[in-house]
Amino acid sequence: MSKVAAVTGGAQGIGKAIAWAFADAGYELAVADVDREAGNELMRELGRRGAKGFFMPVDISDEQQVGRWFKLIDADLGRLDALINNAGISRNAPMLELPLASFDQVIGVNLRGAFICSQQAARRMKTRGAGSIIHIASTRALMSEAHTEAYSASKGGLLALTHAMAVSLGPFGIRVNAISPGWIETADWQKSSASRQPVHSERDRLQHPAQRVGTPQDIAAACLYLSGQDAGFITGHNLVIDGGMTVKMIYED
């Protein structure tokens, strides 16, 4: 029986690359996203690659919608091996002007939504005594630009949720890890109506010790690794994937 991966925010950007990678690795997929056009396009693309699974429009901050998604996973796919909590939004504004409703919306999707999905997934993984949950956090959990309070707080919360869940779910054979991407270029991983060719300057590349800007495939490969048997002794970990950007000291000219 094929393994099954559930990916939130899986229709575009990093999530789309994650869905492709798991499909190419032989997983069946349950993809959740709020963008119907992108989700349906993704499933047509995956179908041409021989992948199996389904897309469902889901607002992951809504517990009832998430519950319906997981019931469909039960009915259509019959098991769950990996959950990748990738869905996320930002509502950046000057701190003194940021509406509280915007702050709550970001926390609701990025943090609360990840917990709701993780709770549903863990209940199913517990019955099998195995499973992997991965939170897509951000280097913004560790460092910031101005006016990113809501987004940064939500991603910092994901890191705390990672180690707490790793301890709580370890006895059930469930591993929980986080990935913190740095600058990942997603312009060419959008739905066809929004996709564009990215352009980077030499300065963009050189501020990374790896000498390039990151790609969604960089994150997808790490998700596959952390979900596999070779990562069986890794849990509660935050893997920073940023081309070395956060360890490079930058001095202004």
Helix/strand-derived category reads alpha/beta
Helix-residue proportion: 40-55%
Q: Please write the string of helix (H) and strand (E) elements.
A: EHEHEHEHEHEHHE
Sum up the overall morphology in one term.
Answer: globular
β-strand percent reads 15-25%
| Order of strands, widest sheet | 3-2-1-4-5-6-7
What does this structure look like?
- By secondary structure, the chain is α/β, with parallel strands linked by helices.
- Helices cover 42% and strands 15% of the residues.
- The chain has seven helices and seven strands.
- The chain has helices at residues 13-24, 36-48, 63-76, 100-128, 149-169, 202-206, 216-227, and strands spanning 4-8, 28-33, 53-57, 82-85, 131-136, 174-181, 238-241.
- Strands 3-2-1-4-5-6-7 form a seven-stranded parallel β-sheet, with helices on both faces.
- α2 links the parallel β2 and β3 (53-57).
- α1 crosses α7, α3 (63-76) runs parallel beside α4 (100-128) and α4 (100-128) runs parallel beside α5.
- The protein is globular.
- The model has no long low-confidence stretch (mean pLDDT 96).
Key words describing this protein structure:
7 helices, 253 residues, alpha/beta
Tell me the layout of helices and strands.
Layout: E1 4-8, H1 13-24, E2 28-33, H2 36-48, E3 53-57, H3 63-76, E4 82-85, H4 100-128, E5 131-136, H5 149-169, E6 174-181, H6 202-206, H7 216-227, E7 238-241
Give a summary of the structure in a few sentences:
The chain is of the alpha/beta class and 253 residues long.
